[in-house]
Amino acid sequence: MRPAEALAPKTDEDTPQGLGLAITAYVLWGFLPLYMKMLAHVPAAEVVAHRVIWSVPIAGAVLVALGRTRDLREALRSPRTLAMGCVTAALVSINWGIYVWAIANDRALDAALGYYINPLFSIFLGAVLLRERLGRMQMVAVALAAVAVLVIALDAGRLPWPAIGLMLSWGFYALAKKKLPVGPNQGFLLEVLILLAPALGYVLWLWSAGQGAFGGVMADTWLLLGCGLVTAVPLLFYANGAKLLRLSTIGILQYIAPTMIFLIAVFVFDEPMDRARMIAFPLIWLALVLYSVSMLRGMRRAKG
To answer: How many other C-beta atoms are found inside a 10 Å radius of the C-beta of residue 297?
Structure first.
């Protein structure tokens, strides 16, 4: 099979390969809470460190197979690219940390909420930072999302901070990633390489203090080793699949993962769907319907 990066749709159309890669990525992300729950007894910072460490050889092997190592070498020699890489690396590590903590502490519903809201937050960022004009349906969708968060906050007496943290970190990560002047595969390897030194330092410090989970219980060691696979593989599938699909298709597919997280939280983890969430989640789903309709209409007008 040819490398996905070498393929591109001839027109603005979906390709079967792109659809397969993207759906696989979102389904893998949807099942990720089940894996992370098995590491719930390991501190989130340690799990994130192992996600970084074991992602490096996988991402490196993919880049070698694609023959794109030269792009990475050029990025490492560019101070501007390195600076932007540090920003995206910091944001993605924060996102991973919040996500791992949320799953371990029975806040998977908040994780689902954060990823549901994310596309609406991206619209808001575009309006505020890039001066993009919002349509009426988009404004209503953003307002509904804000009301949903407010409902949960008023009921709990505090903001659902994991949802807010995931929304902010991934929203700004996506914005910064657009300005990173390298391809998605090279960018991911650049990010984990930047994070590698602090991750290794932290894991070695834990090991020297006799506190690390790695190397202790065999099951934990294998699960931490597997963090590289469950981190790198979906990201690489997504990065290559997104290039072979229309933006509207990606916009619809992105709901797969939070929907799976939501279902796992309720029916597997038995997290409570209290009154506030029974109001908030339908508001979010309505907001996403409006967002999707607005996006599809905009793309049809652009074609016309």
So the answer is: 13
